[in-house]
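Deliverable D4.2, example record:
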Amino acid sequence: MASKFSLYIAVFLFFLSWCLPAYEGVIGAGVMLMAFAYHFMIFPIPIVFPVWANISFLLACKNYQRYSLQSEKGRNYAVITFALMLIGVISASSKINAGALVWLLSSIFLLASLGFKRIAEAHARILLLGLIILILAGACLLYVYEKKQSRYQSPRSFDLKHYLFKPKDSQAEIPLLTQVRQNNAYRISQKIPADPQALDLAFLLQEAIELDFGETLDIPSNKDKKLNCSLKPNQQHDLFYPPKYLQDGYAWIRYFNSGDVAVGHPSDAQGAVIYHAKNLDQQHTLLQLIRKSDQHVLYEQKLLVDSGFKKCSYFPKGYKQELNAVFELDAGSPDRKFGSFIPHARLDELEQLAEQCSWKKLAHNTYEFEGKRINFLDTKTFSPQLLCSDKYLAVGSLTEYHAQDIENSLKIETFRRDTLEPVPCGLVSYRLSDSQKQAFYAGKLKMEVLKAIQADEFYSQNDRCPVIELRLNDGEVKTDNNFLSKNKE
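Output generated by the structure prediction step:
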């Protein structure tokens, strides 16, 4: 009886794993057959552990009923099934989740059902009860451990393999994420329901947002120094900016143009809501949305700063998606893209920028040019140089891949001179040698002429962007590395 009950549990768990999000092809019978055919045609069958494990499981069940106690076939199939399932789960390259673990448990009960046939029924019942208790206790311990680990992980990382086998996103406990009821693109795509206690901030969609941030902390690029993300009084790391906002007497618009910049124009407008950031200590920053009329706090989110992916980052990272859902002004506008606005300006063919011009640096990544301002947001600019024409302003600078690592490339962003609206075809990059990078960083290598020329005849008339050539003062002429990819979009 204990043997049959163990088999029933094994079969139930096996088919349950098909209904859960599980490892690779173990999602359903149809998917299993498709995966078998797919791997048979493309990959060597011996490495497809889920397919073979499913087949050996069914063969073990068949032999359980057909052969006598003396037959070794059923037991051998059960051992093979367990080995294949164990290898499949351990070698999962992307994720392990509940379905995969249930799938593995089915093989354990399958082994037990065949083993219980060989011992006395009383002993088999005791062992089956002990096995069930042991697995339930293990599941409880795993759940408690996972909940503990989740406090140190970004909310975007939710599979068991990330919690159990990958390094922590942070060495400190990550604050809970404050959710809003507004549409969060990430939550919708992942079918994650909003928290029942989520705040409804729909009334803020048409309100003017006024920023009240401290200065942005500038982490020096020095490979010999250890990255220090500790906060200083009235200084924060890069925070999330709304698509439109007011700050220091300027009205700002964020533009998404294969980069992320904000452009500000002088304005007397006043914000109805203050988007405030203050440091609680050296590790934590508190974000608040405050109604200006009565100083009522509408929303707040506690953030932890830590060194993630060799840069200083705020956790939980999901706070950006939540705030973006609140700040999405003009949600139906065709000018929006990824929470920002798409510029309409175009770079004219045969345009040439050769005039040496200058701007005034106001703060980290923020500059003033002819009464207007540019903020490069979370992209650090090193040793920026400017070229102008009557129509355009081009900004060339070195950038970093991650903290303390400057890239061997020169990025140039082009703006309309009268409005500072970014120009889509004016975002280009050029590969530099190590010596050129060092010379540009030191101010010895200069941009002389930036020229838009007609595209090669190979490309059709529908190409959006012309070729952009750059002449440097060392005599070298470079062609835009982004040209091919941009014209294939």
